[in-house]
């Protein structure tokens, strides 16, 4: 058995480790979300509205919408790593193959939605941020008058 992780395995582990899963079934903010808990404002932050039921009852299940949010977040985490490793990676094709619903992938008129790409940390130069890192500012060519120095 190999003792050390490959770079790919480390990147996937770092992204999963850095991601805040505690509220994943109740939001769809992508990989750039803050780690601070933000209450929904309606007084019920449980998401499902269930107290878990009586002893011996089936555990509460996520609604279809909640389950889709989890799927989207998992897709974003994996896509962040795949995009970092492969400059030819197509996140839209990956989202479709991962079973992400048209509500996330398409506009109401059937065109490609920006939601899939907005959930990824990608600079203006098209490069994906390093897995496990936090969001960075825009990168790439700057407008007129740029000194070329750090932002």
Automatic annotation (TrEMBL):
Compositionally skewed regions (Gly residues) per UniProt = 134-151
Q: Where is this region: Disordered?
A: 16-67, 117-151
Organism for this UniProt entry:
Clavibacter michiganensis
User: Which protein, by its recorded name, is this?
Assistant: Uncharacterized protein
Recorded superkingdom: Bacteria
């Amino acid at each position: 058995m190999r003792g050390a992780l490959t770079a790919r395995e480390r990147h996937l582990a770092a992204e999963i480790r850095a991601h805040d899963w505690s509220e994943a079934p109740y939001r769809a903010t992508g990989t750039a979300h803050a780690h601070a808990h933000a209450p929904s404002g309606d007084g019920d932050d449980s998401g499902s509205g269930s107290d878990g039921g009586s002893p011996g009852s089936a555990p509460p299940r996520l609604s279809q919408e909640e389950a889709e949010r989890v799927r989207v977040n998992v897709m974003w985490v994996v896509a962040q790593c795949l995009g970092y490793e492969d400059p030819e990676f197509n996140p839209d094709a990956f989202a479709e193959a991962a079973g992400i619903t048209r509500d996330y992938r398409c506009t109401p008129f059937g065109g490609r939605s920006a939601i899939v790409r907005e959930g990824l940390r990608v600079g203006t130069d098209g490069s994906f941020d390093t897995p496990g890192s936090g969001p960075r500012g825009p990168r790439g060519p700057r407008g007129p008058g740029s000194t070329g120095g750090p932002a």
